[in-house]
Write a structure and sequence with these properties.
2 copies of one chain form a homodimer. The first copy, chain A, is an alpha/beta fold and 179 residues long. The first copy, chain A, contains 6 helices and 8 strands; from the N terminus they run βαβαβαβαβαβαββ. Chain A has a single domain, classed as Alpha/beta knot (3-Layer(aba) Sandwich), CATH 3.40.1280. The two termini of chain A are 30 Å apart. At the A-B interface, α1, β4, β6 and α6 of A face α1, β4, β6 and α6 of B. Chains A, B: Specifically catalyzes the AdoMet-dependent 2'-O-ribose methylation of cytidine at position 56 in tRNAs.
């Protein structure tokens, strides 16, 4: 199952940090690519690419002016769409169904206002707890459920920086050969 | 097990949205209280209190000038401390141990730079995936692991707004008696 993420309605300055966290969360929890829509933010994309290349793997980031174009293309290629919204069905009930479906999954993460067309286009509208919190935490927990915890075993190939889990302090392998 | 969260080194403006998301994530995933340190941000605290009171429950938010004071008090009261850091031990290996320990848990969420004293004071330094992503996603996934998924069944008492999970559209019960 290939997982991509689509971030709606990015706004320059106001959303820079949240959208950066959405991108890095998508990558860390196993998505291979994120599409950004809304205002084009070249600096943010450069920063995410830079972090991703230092920590390894093949994460992609692409700007798309038309989020509905991304959704339609995904569906016409045979993929299915999960839209994360506080109002959707409970994540822990839906995630196993999505996983067993086996289709490639586009996870849509909202901005300030999400049009009804996104709710309609989604195969699943999914809520993480039905409480207000964050698109970052919703994405992380949904990806965690979808991966069934396998994100903890992901290997990111050819990293420059490789963090070695350690109880106290910091332990980072530096692979200069991957620079 | 009572869970509280301590957010280090909040900076006005720059961190407003991320810290707000940290607060709401803490609440949604079962923490009863968050302590904020760094720059005092009355507006942020008011906004979080307002959201929390509309969606129910008894979530508390308190500013503390001394994060180390909060940590020391927590430990002297018999609680234990989890510090979330990219460099720590893997979350899925540590969460069951923390849960079985049964102590009240203070989860410390870093800011831009975390002093060595926090690493030392922590009973567990814990990493969620060892990849860079977000304090918001780290907190959510660690709380999810700690709660063993029970956050999906939490009841927030006396809400004004109660979201009813629904496959398409929005379904919100409005309890005017709780205003």
């Amino acid at each position: 199952m290939n997982v991509n993420v689509l971030r709606l309605d990015h706004r320059l300055k106001r959303d820079t940090r949240i959208t950066t966290h959405v991108c890095l969360t998508a990558r860390a929890f196993g998505a291979s690519k994120i599409y950004l829509s809304g205002e084009r933010d070249a600096k943010l994309m450069e920063n995410v690419r830079d972090t991703a290349s230092r920590f390894g793997g093949n994460f992609e980031i692409e700007y798309s002016e038309s989020y509905m174009g991304v959704i339609k293309k995904w569906k016409s290629d045979g993929g299915k769409v999960v839209h994360l919204t506080m109002y959707g069905s409970q994540a822990h009930e839906i995630a196993p169904e999505v996983r067993e479906d086996g289709s490639d999954i586009l996870i849509v993460v909202g901005g300030s206002k999400v049009p009804g067309s996104v709710y309609k286009a989604a195969d699943w509208n999914v809520s993480v707890t039905t409480q207000p919190h964050s698109e970052v935490s919703s994405l992380a927990v949904f990806q965690h459920l979808l991966m069934n915890g396998k994100e903890f075993d992901l290997k990111f190939e050819n990293p420059v920086l490789e963090v070695i889990p350690t109880a106290h302090g910091k332990n980072v392998n530096i692979h200069n050969e991957n620079r």
